[in-house]
Amino acid sequence: MPDNAYIAALVTLSAAVTWTLRALPFAVLAPLRQSRVVTYLGLHMPVGVMIILAIYTLRTVAGETALQRGYLLLAVALTAGLHLWRGNAVLSILIGTASYVTLMSLL
């Protein structure tokens, strides 16, 4: 059975490695915050990622009947309209998802 010093050394080493790996991204990104490329990516990547996620979701969720596809299009239109009107992504996604689930469940 390992002695206490060996166990303490293992715990200390694993804590040091864990802390280092968690701090490393912040240390690397700190100098890049002033970079024009990082600023550009920060502005434009969220839109691209959301488009990819939306296309993937709509492709895999598409209903089997025309009525289900209509509900899907209605929920997407509601989500897009609400986002254009209010500009709040969380609110748009929550209401769009709730409307789609409600339409599919109740109607």
Strand content: under 5%
State the major sheet. none
Low-confidence stretches: none
Would you list the SSEs in sequence order as H and E?
Answer: HHHH
Give the fraction of residues assigned to helices.
over 70%
Note the overall shape: elongated
Given helix and strand content, the structural type is: mainly alpha
Distance N to C terminus:
65 Å
How many individual helices? Answer: 4
**Whole-number radius of gyration?**
23 Å
Average pLDDT reading: 86
User: Based on DSSP secondary structure assignment, what is the total number of beta strands?
Assistant: 0
Give descriptors for this structure.
107 residues; mainly alpha; 4 helices; 85% helix
Record the SSE blueprint.
Elements: H1 4-29, H2 36-61, H3 66-86, H4 89-106
Describe the protein.
The chain is 85% helix and 0% strand. It is built from four helices and no strands. It is elongated and about 70 Å long. The termini are far apart.
Task: Give a short overview.
The chain has 107 residues and is mainly alpha-helical. Helix content is 85%, strand content 0%. The mean pLDDT is 86.
